[in-house]
Each structure stands twice: as C-alpha cells, then as structure tokens.
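Example with several molecule types.
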Amino acid sequence: MYNTLIRNILRFIVLLVVQVLVFDNLGFGTYIHPYVYVLFVLLLPFDTPRWRLLIYGFLIGIAVDIFNGTPGLNAAATVFLAFMRPYIIGITTRKSDIEDKNAPSVTEMGLQWFAIYALLLILLHNLVLFWLEAFSIKLLGLILAETLLSAPVTLLLIIIIIYIFKPVKK
Amino acid sequence: MYNLFIFIRKYNAVILFILLEVLCIVMIVQSLPYQSRKMANVSNSITGGVHKTTSNWHDYLHLKSENEALSEHNALLLKRLGCEEVEADAEYYDDIFTYIPARVVNNNIYEMNNYIVIDKGSIDGIEPDMGVICDKGVVGKVVNVSKHYASVMSMLNSYSIISCRFVDNQYVANVVWDNKNYRYGLVKDIPSHIVIKAGDTLVTSGFSNSFPADVMVGTIAEKGDADENMFSTAKLKFSTNFSTLRHVYVVKNNFKSEIDSLCITH
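Resulting structure tokens for the full complex:
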C-alpha cells in the first residue's frame, strides 16, 4: 500500500515534468500534440475507487494547466478520461480476467490489451481537449484531424515511456 | 433526506464527475478571451521560475546565433541614428514611446491560442495592453502582469487583432491568425477595390496606443478572394519568426492615460 502510494507520487511528478518540459516544447507540427501525462491515470490500480480516479485525473490535469496557462482545459479532459476508464475496462475485459490482477499495466495485461485500452481512452481525452480548446463546432474538421493524429503518437510515446521505466526482472 | 443520502452514495462518482467538469468549464470560460488575471498571476509566479531555469539553458546553447542577431540589430539602429537624427518627427516619437527590453522565458506556437511569458513584470513598469515587438517586427500584446513576469498574447492567437497599414497605398486592414501555421497570418477587411499583390508590405497603423506606427508586420504571400461584403482577405507571411523568439521589446506609451481619457470623454 505504502509502496504504491510512493510509486504513484513519483509517477505523477515524473510525468508532469516530462510533459511540461519536454513534450510541450517539442514541435510535432500543427496537428500533433502528445499529452503523455494521461499515463498516470491509465496506470492507477484496478481497485481505485471511481471518485478517487476523478480526483487524481483532476489533479494532474490542473497541474499541467497551471504550467501551460490554460486553466481547466487539461483538467476537464483528464476528468472525462478518468470517468470513462471503468467503462473502457468493462468493455475490453471480462470480470474474471482482472480479478487477480493489480493494475492495468503492460506487464500484467499484455501489450496488445494495453494498446487498445490506452488508445480508446486517449482518443476520448484528445477529443474533449481539442474540442474545448476550439470551443466551437465550426472547427470540427480540425478537431478530428488533431485527435486522430495526436492519439496514435501519444500511444506510441506512452509505450516507449513504459519500456524506459520498466522494472528489470531478476 | 434519507433518500437523498442513498442517492448521493449510489451516484457519488457521477456527481463528482459533473461537479469537477463544471468547475473546469467555469475556469475555461473565465479565461476567455483573455486569461483570467488571478489564475495567470498565480501560474506566472509559480511556473515563471521553472521556465526561466530551462530558458537559461536554452539561451546558453543559442548564444552564438543570438549574439549575431543582436549585433546585426545594433548595426541597424546605429545606421538609423546616423541618418535620421535631424528629423523632427523621429524625436517626437521617442518622447511618446519607451522601449523596455525583455527576454522570452516561455513560448508556445502550436496551440490554438498561444501566449508568451517574458521576464519583466509590474516592477519593471509593464502593464496590460502594452505592445510587444522584436527586431524583426510585431510580436503581440501584454495581457497579464505579475511582479516579475508578464504573459503576452502573441499574434498566433485567435483573439489577436492587429491594425495594419499597406505601405504602398496607406489603406488600413486588420491582421488575424487562422490557427494553421505559425509563419502565416490572415489580412482581413481589405476593401476589394484596392489592388494588392504578393510581396506587399504591411506595417502597424499607429492607430492603437499599443504600437508605434510603421513597425513591420509582414508581407503578403497570397491574395485571396473577395467575400459578399466586398472585402477581401489575403495570406500574410509574418516578418517575426515566432519559433526562434528570444529577445523582445515592450512598448510603453508615455501618454496612454492621456489618450485614453480623451477617448472616454467623447
């Protein structure tokens, strides 16, 4: 329990720093904005209560917002992601599959399942985020383009990050 | 009452979700079109320090090219001083505007509404609505000021409108940004009877109190079509390269309050 808490706090800080100092400054072009900090919410344990998921999502979202000067934008999208997470887990797994599992990570659930789970949630997150940023349905084409291009890039970067920080098996 | 408790317990996650989303939307709406002053002040003072540290590293790595650009600009200024000293007009302008040099500590160009953070704040005399220029041309307008930092709405922002003038024929038009590319903007409200061609130069009109007249904005890259109101648009190439922006000047209008008081009385 204690161990999980420390690990999650560290993960929060590392992802926040990586997001704000690296990915917000990398220019991938007009349409691609990777938001890798969502990995924090994606990796929270299966037994995290839903209200805590929402609070955690809000906290990391608002932290990124404070650095980007966009109050509420990332927070709104990440709260939505946290809200949808149980449903996405519900439609991609059977209850018996996750009973003995700890967290929805690559090591425990396999890369293929994780990629589908993460991609679905990232798509939802990006859709809400780019829509709120544009704040108008007129730019629907732009919003869809940004979402469809950003989500796969985010997924790829997240998987790379997971493999960089993967604990070495003895 | 008991039923209410049961309801809250059963749907606690949904209720919390709705509350948090409403909170976020309120924050977003409050920050439109200008960022909310309070939030930006807090975030400037917390994050300004972090951005300044990373910016210090960045500056070090770009010292050489930055030195070259500054000395080039120096040479240009010296040249101008040499030939225009006798012009009465120029001296008059110097009385109106003061230029405060500042360094860019954080800069976005890929968002839909881009803001720049500079390392000068209220103690350096920066105030909201002051114009910001660099040696290449117009950069944007100050929107928020904290003690040591200020955030600048760059021209790469859907709320940015800069009043401009064609050098060739003196017609005035507005420059906005179409959210697509950080090198190009859009010139709107050009009367369709005036002939424009690619390469035409646009400078600030001097009608706003934020910018002096004749600061370079950009050149026409492509001519657009006229709309139903007989105004045409054109694609503009910014003279400022926002992606390599490091040193800027904040324009202080020494007579701003005087001009503003005149505008209010009429």
